[in-house]
Amino acid sequence: CARQAGPGSVRRWEVSLGAARDRRERLREDLVGARARGELAIAWQPIVSLAEQRVTGVEALARWVHPVFGELEPEEFIPIAERAGLVGDLQRWVLHEAMTQAAALPEHDQPLRLGVNVSPVHLASGTVVGDVAAALAATGFPAQRLVVEVTGSTGLVDSPSLAADFAALRLMGVHLALDDFGAGASSLEHLTRWAVDVVKLDRAFLARVDKDARPRALCASVVGIGSALGIDVVAEGVETPSQLTVLRALGCGFAQGFLLSRPLTLPALVARLDAGAGHLWPGQVGRVGAG
Length: 291
Ligand code: C2E
Ligand code: MG
Ligand code: MG
Ligand code: MG
Known about the structure:
- This protein is of the alpha/beta class.
- It is built from 12 helices and 9 strands.
- The protein has an 8-stranded mixed barrel, surrounded by 4 helices.
- A hairpin with a 3-residue loop joins strand 2 and strand 3.
- Helix 3 (about 85-105) packs parallel to helix 5 (about 130-140) and helix 5 runs parallel beside helix 6.
- The N and C termini lie far apart (about 55 Å).
- The chain binds ligand C2E and magnesium ion (3 copies).
- One magnesium ion (MG) binds next to strand 6.
- It comes from Klenkia brasiliensis.
- This is Diguanylate cyclase (GGDEF) domain-containing protein.
Protein backbone atom coordinates (compact mmCIF):
# COMPACT_ATOMS: atom_id res chain seq x y z
CA CYS A 1 0.00 0.00 0.00
CA ALA A 2 0.98 3.64 -0.26
CA ARG A 3 2.17 3.82 3.36
CA GLN A 4 4.65 0.99 2.82
CA ALA A 5 6.03 2.80 -0.21
CA GLY A 6 6.95 5.61 2.17
CA PRO A 7 5.58 9.08 2.78
CA GLY A 8 7.78 10.54 0.05
CA SER A 9 6.06 8.56 -2.67
CA VAL A 10 2.62 9.54 -1.37
CA ARG A 11 3.65 13.17 -1.62
CA ARG A 12 5.02 12.69 -5.14
CA TRP A 13 1.74 11.04 -6.11
CA GLU A 14 -0.23 13.95 -4.64
CA VAL A 15 2.05 16.45 -6.36
CA SER A 16 1.60 14.78 -9.76
CA LEU A 17 -2.19 14.55 -9.28
CA GLY A 18 -2.16 18.23 -8.35
CA ALA A 19 -0.04 19.08 -11.40
CA ALA A 20 -2.45 17.22 -13.71
CA ARG A 21 -5.36 19.08 -12.12
CA ASP A 22 -3.57 22.41 -12.50
CA ARG A 23 -2.86 21.68 -16.17
CA ARG A 24 -6.50 20.78 -16.86
CA GLU A 25 -7.65 23.91 -15.02
CA ARG A 26 -5.19 26.06 -16.98
CA LEU A 27 -6.29 24.49 -20.28
CA ARG A 28 -9.94 25.01 -19.43
CA GLU A 29 -9.32 28.74 -18.86
CA ASP A 30 -7.15 29.13 -21.96
CA LEU A 31 -9.55 27.24 -24.23
CA VAL A 32 -12.10 30.04 -23.93
CA GLY A 33 -9.97 32.43 -26.02
CA ALA A 34 -8.01 29.89 -28.08
CA ARG A 35 -10.13 30.31 -31.17
CA ALA A 36 -9.95 34.12 -31.11
CA ARG A 37 -6.15 33.97 -30.62
CA GLY A 38 -5.84 31.76 -33.71
CA GLU A 39 -4.44 28.80 -31.77
CA LEU A 40 -6.80 26.20 -33.25
CA ALA A 41 -5.82 24.31 -36.37
CA ILE A 42 -6.83 21.33 -38.45
CA ALA A 43 -4.64 18.38 -39.37
CA TRP A 44 -5.63 16.51 -42.52
CA GLN A 45 -5.31 12.76 -42.93
CA PRO A 46 -5.96 11.19 -46.36
CA ILE A 47 -8.30 8.21 -46.75
CA VAL A 48 -7.42 5.86 -49.60
CA SER A 49 -9.69 3.68 -51.73
CA LEU A 50 -7.96 0.31 -51.98
CA ALA A 51 -9.93 -0.64 -55.09
CA GLU A 52 -9.16 2.61 -56.93
CA GLN A 53 -5.70 3.05 -55.40
CA ARG A 54 -6.17 6.75 -54.86
CA VAL A 55 -7.10 9.24 -52.19
CA THR A 56 -10.88 9.58 -52.09
CA GLY A 57 -11.28 11.41 -48.80
CA VAL A 58 -9.68 13.34 -45.96
CA GLU A 59 -10.42 13.46 -42.26
CA ALA A 60 -10.21 16.78 -40.43
CA LEU A 61 -8.55 16.37 -37.02
CA ALA A 62 -8.64 19.20 -34.48
CA ARG A 63 -5.37 20.57 -33.10
CA TRP A 64 -4.69 23.20 -30.45
CA VAL A 65 -1.31 24.88 -30.57
CA HIS A 66 -1.03 26.14 -27.00
CA PRO A 67 1.44 29.02 -26.44
CA VAL A 68 3.08 27.23 -23.47
CA PHE A 69 2.34 23.52 -23.84
CA GLY A 70 2.74 23.33 -27.63
CA GLU A 71 0.57 21.19 -29.91
CA LEU A 72 -2.09 19.40 -27.89
CA GLU A 73 -3.90 16.23 -28.88
CA PRO A 74 -7.68 16.22 -29.22
CA GLU A 75 -7.79 13.38 -26.71
CA GLU A 76 -6.56 15.88 -24.11
CA PHE A 77 -8.54 19.01 -24.95
CA ILE A 78 -11.85 17.67 -26.33
CA PRO A 79 -12.83 16.13 -22.95
CA ILE A 80 -11.92 19.43 -21.27
CA ALA A 81 -14.08 21.31 -23.78
CA GLU A 82 -16.91 18.83 -23.19
CA ARG A 83 -16.83 19.29 -19.42
CA ALA A 84 -16.55 23.08 -19.67
CA GLY A 85 -19.50 23.42 -22.04
CA LEU A 86 -17.19 24.65 -24.81
CA VAL A 87 -17.37 21.72 -27.21
CA GLY A 88 -20.18 23.26 -29.28
CA ASP A 89 -18.08 26.38 -29.97
CA LEU A 90 -15.05 24.27 -30.81
CA GLN A 91 -17.09 22.04 -33.08
CA ARG A 92 -18.67 24.97 -34.94
CA TRP A 93 -15.18 26.29 -35.62
CA VAL A 94 -13.97 22.89 -36.89
CA LEU A 95 -16.99 22.43 -39.17
CA HIS A 96 -16.71 25.91 -40.66
CA GLU A 97 -12.92 25.85 -41.04
CA ALA A 98 -12.76 22.29 -42.43
CA MET A 99 -15.42 23.00 -45.06
CA THR A 100 -13.89 26.35 -46.03
CA GLN A 101 -10.45 24.79 -46.52
CA ALA A 102 -11.68 21.57 -48.14
CA ALA A 103 -13.74 23.54 -50.65
CA ALA A 104 -10.47 25.08 -51.89
CA LEU A 105 -8.57 21.79 -52.32
CA PRO A 106 -7.36 20.95 -55.83
CA GLU A 107 -9.76 18.62 -57.61
CA HIS A 108 -8.30 15.74 -59.52
CA ASP A 109 -10.28 12.74 -60.72
CA GLN A 110 -13.11 13.37 -58.34
CA PRO A 111 -13.82 15.71 -55.41
CA LEU A 112 -12.74 14.41 -52.01
CA ARG A 113 -15.06 13.44 -49.21
CA LEU A 114 -14.51 15.31 -45.95
CA GLY A 115 -14.80 13.56 -42.58
CA VAL A 116 -15.47 15.69 -39.49
CA ASN A 117 -15.73 14.22 -36.00
CA VAL A 118 -18.56 15.24 -33.69
CA SER A 119 -18.58 14.59 -29.97
CA PRO A 120 -21.36 12.64 -28.23
CA VAL A 121 -21.68 15.58 -25.83
CA HIS A 122 -22.26 17.95 -28.75
CA LEU A 123 -24.80 15.49 -30.17
CA ALA A 124 -26.60 15.34 -26.83
CA SER A 125 -26.81 19.15 -26.76
CA GLY A 126 -29.14 18.98 -29.75
CA THR A 127 -27.41 21.65 -31.87
CA VAL A 128 -25.42 19.42 -34.25
CA VAL A 129 -27.95 19.41 -37.10
CA GLY A 130 -28.31 23.19 -36.97
CA ASP A 131 -24.55 23.67 -36.68
CA VAL A 132 -23.86 21.43 -39.70
CA ALA A 133 -26.56 23.15 -41.74
CA ALA A 134 -25.18 26.58 -40.86
CA ALA A 135 -21.62 25.59 -41.84
CA LEU A 136 -22.82 24.10 -45.14
CA ALA A 137 -24.77 27.26 -45.92
CA ALA A 138 -21.95 29.61 -44.92
CA THR A 139 -19.22 27.78 -46.86
CA GLY A 140 -21.19 26.44 -49.84
CA PHE A 141 -19.59 23.04 -49.27
CA PRO A 142 -21.70 20.27 -50.88
CA ALA A 143 -23.53 18.24 -48.23
CA GLN A 144 -23.00 15.04 -50.26
CA ARG A 145 -19.25 15.29 -49.69
CA LEU A 146 -19.49 15.70 -45.92
CA VAL A 147 -19.14 12.67 -43.65
CA VAL A 148 -20.08 13.24 -40.03
CA GLU A 149 -18.05 10.81 -37.90
CA VAL A 150 -19.68 9.68 -34.67
CA THR A 151 -17.92 7.40 -32.23
CA GLY A 152 -20.02 4.64 -30.72
CA SER A 153 -17.23 3.70 -28.33
CA THR A 154 -17.96 6.27 -25.62
CA GLY A 155 -21.24 7.42 -24.15
CA LEU A 156 -23.37 7.61 -27.28
CA VAL A 157 -26.78 7.66 -25.62
CA ASP A 158 -29.32 6.16 -27.96
CA SER A 159 -32.49 8.25 -27.90
CA PRO A 160 -35.32 9.25 -30.22
CA SER A 161 -33.74 12.70 -30.62
CA LEU A 162 -30.39 11.17 -31.65
CA ALA A 163 -32.13 9.00 -34.26
CA ALA A 164 -34.02 12.10 -35.46
CA ASP A 165 -30.76 14.07 -35.74
CA PHE A 166 -29.12 11.30 -37.80
CA ALA A 167 -32.19 11.14 -40.04
CA ALA A 168 -32.12 14.93 -40.48
CA LEU A 169 -28.43 14.87 -41.45
CA ARG A 170 -29.05 12.16 -44.04
CA LEU A 171 -32.04 14.06 -45.39
CA MET A 172 -29.65 16.99 -45.96
CA GLY A 173 -27.48 14.60 -48.00
CA VAL A 174 -24.75 14.33 -45.35
CA HIS A 175 -23.15 10.91 -44.86
CA LEU A 176 -22.85 9.27 -41.47
CA ALA A 177 -19.83 7.28 -40.26
CA LEU A 178 -19.58 5.10 -37.16
CA ASP A 179 -16.06 5.77 -35.85
CA ASP A 180 -13.85 3.46 -33.75
CA PHE A 181 -16.14 0.57 -34.64
CA GLY A 182 -15.55 -2.49 -32.52
CA ALA A 183 -13.90 -0.57 -29.65
CA GLY A 184 -15.37 0.26 -26.24
CA ALA A 185 -19.13 0.38 -26.07
CA SER A 186 -19.79 0.38 -29.82
CA SER A 187 -22.18 -2.34 -30.83
CA LEU A 188 -23.59 -4.16 -33.82
CA GLU A 189 -26.96 -2.83 -32.72
CA HIS A 190 -25.86 0.66 -33.80
CA LEU A 191 -25.79 -0.68 -37.36
CA THR A 192 -29.35 -1.98 -37.22
CA ARG A 193 -30.70 1.14 -35.54
CA TRP A 194 -29.23 3.87 -37.71
CA ALA A 195 -28.76 4.12 -41.45
CA VAL A 196 -24.98 4.37 -41.47
CA ASP A 197 -22.99 5.02 -44.68
CA VAL A 198 -19.49 4.30 -43.41
CA VAL A 199 -17.99 2.10 -40.70
CA LYS A 200 -14.49 2.94 -39.48
CA LEU A 201 -12.89 -0.18 -38.07
CA ASP A 202 -10.97 0.69 -34.90
CA ARG A 203 -7.23 0.46 -35.18
CA ALA A 204 -7.09 -2.02 -32.28
CA PHE A 205 -8.26 -4.68 -34.78
CA LEU A 206 -5.64 -3.69 -37.29
CA ALA A 207 -2.73 -4.05 -34.92
CA ARG A 208 -2.46 -7.85 -35.29
CA VAL A 209 -4.57 -8.46 -38.38
CA ASP A 210 -1.56 -9.80 -40.28
CA LYS A 211 -0.37 -12.04 -37.43
CA ASP A 212 -3.44 -13.43 -35.71
CA ALA A 213 -6.44 -15.27 -37.18
CA ARG A 214 -8.93 -13.81 -34.70
CA PRO A 215 -8.70 -10.11 -35.53
CA ARG A 216 -8.47 -11.16 -39.19
CA ALA A 217 -11.78 -13.05 -38.86
CA LEU A 218 -13.38 -10.05 -37.18
CA CYS A 219 -12.20 -7.72 -39.96
CA ALA A 220 -13.52 -10.16 -42.54
CA SER A 221 -16.93 -10.20 -40.82
CA VAL A 222 -17.16 -6.42 -40.71
CA VAL A 223 -16.20 -6.26 -44.41
CA GLY A 224 -18.96 -8.83 -45.06
CA ILE A 225 -21.53 -6.86 -43.07
CA GLY A 226 -20.48 -3.75 -44.98
CA SER A 227 -21.00 -5.32 -48.37
CA ALA A 228 -24.33 -6.90 -47.30
CA LEU A 229 -25.63 -3.55 -46.04
CA GLY A 230 -24.01 -1.29 -48.64
CA ILE A 231 -21.77 0.33 -46.04
CA ASP A 232 -18.22 1.49 -46.86
CA VAL A 233 -15.63 0.00 -44.52
CA VAL A 234 -12.57 2.10 -43.67
CA ALA A 235 -9.69 0.41 -41.81
CA GLU A 236 -8.12 2.87 -39.37
CA GLY A 237 -4.53 2.87 -38.15
CA VAL A 238 -2.86 0.97 -41.01
CA GLU A 239 0.85 1.15 -40.22
CA THR A 240 2.55 -1.69 -42.13
CA PRO A 241 2.53 -3.04 -45.70
CA SER A 242 1.55 -6.50 -44.45
CA GLN A 243 -1.57 -5.08 -42.73
CA LEU A 244 -2.49 -3.44 -46.02
CA THR A 245 -1.94 -6.68 -47.93
CA VAL A 246 -4.32 -8.53 -45.59
CA LEU A 247 -6.95 -5.79 -45.85
CA ARG A 248 -6.82 -5.94 -49.64
CA ALA A 249 -7.15 -9.73 -49.55
CA LEU A 250 -10.22 -9.38 -47.28
CA GLY A 251 -11.79 -6.94 -49.74
CA CYS A 252 -11.78 -3.98 -47.35
CA GLY A 253 -12.72 -0.90 -49.37
CA PHE A 254 -10.76 1.91 -47.73
CA ALA A 255 -7.76 2.47 -45.51
CA GLN A 256 -6.32 5.28 -43.40
CA GLY A 257 -3.13 5.25 -41.38
CA PHE A 258 0.46 6.30 -40.95
CA LEU A 259 1.61 3.92 -43.72
CA LEU A 260 -0.44 5.85 -46.27
CA SER A 261 -0.02 9.26 -44.65
CA ARG A 262 0.27 10.86 -41.24
CA PRO A 263 -2.09 13.77 -40.56
CA LEU A 264 -0.76 16.70 -42.62
CA THR A 265 -0.87 20.47 -42.64
CA LEU A 266 -3.03 21.89 -45.42
CA PRO A 267 -0.07 22.88 -47.65
CA ALA A 268 1.45 19.42 -47.20
CA LEU A 269 -1.88 17.81 -48.12
CA VAL A 270 -2.15 19.96 -51.25
CA ALA A 271 1.43 19.07 -52.21
CA ARG A 272 0.71 15.36 -51.74
CA LEU A 273 -2.47 15.53 -53.82
CA ASP A 274 -0.72 17.50 -56.56
CA ALA A 275 2.32 15.21 -56.62
CA GLY A 276 0.26 12.05 -56.90
CA ALA A 277 -2.51 13.64 -59.00
CA GLY A 278 -4.82 12.18 -56.38
CA HIS A 279 -3.39 8.70 -56.76
CA LEU A 280 -1.41 6.76 -54.19
CA TRP A 281 2.03 8.25 -53.73
CA PRO A 282 4.68 6.78 -56.03
CA GLY A 283 6.31 4.87 -53.14
CA GLN A 284 3.04 3.10 -52.37
CA VAL A 285 1.84 2.20 -55.84
CA GLY A 286 4.32 -0.61 -56.47
CA ARG A 287 3.85 -2.17 -53.08
CA VAL A 288 0.07 -2.00 -53.14
CA GLY A 289 -0.23 -3.07 -56.76
CA ALA A 290 2.13 -5.97 -56.18
CA GLY A 291 0.20 -7.11 -53.08
P1 C2E B 1 -10.39 9.33 -34.77
O1 C2E B 1 -11.54 10.09 -35.31
O2 C2E B 1 -10.52 7.85 -34.72
O3 C2E B 1 -9.15 9.78 -35.64
C1 C2E B 1 -8.05 8.95 -35.94
C2 C2E B 1 -6.92 9.15 -34.94
O4 C2E B 1 -5.97 8.13 -35.15
C3 C2E B 1 -6.17 10.46 -35.13
O5 C2E B 1 -5.65 10.86 -33.85
C4 C2E B 1 -5.01 10.04 -36.03
O6 C2E B 1 -3.89 10.88 -35.94
C5 C2E B 1 -4.72 8.67 -35.46
N1 C2E B 1 -4.10 7.81 -36.45
C6 C2E B 1 -4.29 7.77 -37.79
N2 C2E B 1 -3.56 6.81 -38.39
C7 C2E B 1 -2.88 6.20 -37.39
C8 C2E B 1 -1.93 5.10 -37.38
O7 C2E B 1 -1.58 4.51 -38.38
N3 C2E B 1 -1.45 4.74 -36.15
C9 C2E B 1 -1.81 5.38 -35.00
N4 C2E B 1 -1.27 4.97 -33.86
N5 C2E B 1 -2.70 6.42 -34.98
C10 C2E B 1 -3.22 6.81 -36.17
P2 C2E B 1 -5.88 12.33 -33.27
O8 C2E B 1 -5.78 13.34 -34.37
O9 C2E B 1 -4.99 12.46 -32.08
O10 C2E B 1 -7.39 12.31 -32.83
C11 C2E B 1 -7.82 11.46 -31.82
C12 C2E B 1 -9.32 11.49 -31.68
O11 C2E B 1 -9.79 12.77 -31.28
C13 C2E B 1 -10.04 11.22 -33.01
O12 C2E B 1 -10.05 9.83 -33.26
C14 C2E B 1 -11.40 11.80 -32.72
O13 C2E B 1 -12.19 10.88 -32.00
C15 C2E B 1 -11.07 12.96 -31.79
N6 C2E B 1 -11.15 14.23 -32.56
C16 C2E B 1 -10.27 14.76 -33.43
N7 C2E B 1 -10.72 15.92 -33.95
C17 C2E B 1 -11.94 16.13 -33.39
C18 C2E B 1 -12.95 17.17 -33.54
O14 C2E B 1 -12.83 18.12 -34.31
N8 C2E B 1 -14.08 17.03 -32.79
C19 C2E B 1 -14.27 15.97 -31.94
N9 C2E B 1 -15.41 15.92 -31.23
N10 C2E B 1 -13.37 14.99 -31.79
C20 C2E B 1 -12.21 15.06 -32.51
MG1 MG C 1 -3.35 11.33 -31.42
MG1 MG D 1 -12.75 10.06 -36.84
MG1 MG E 1 -11.37 6.25 -35.08
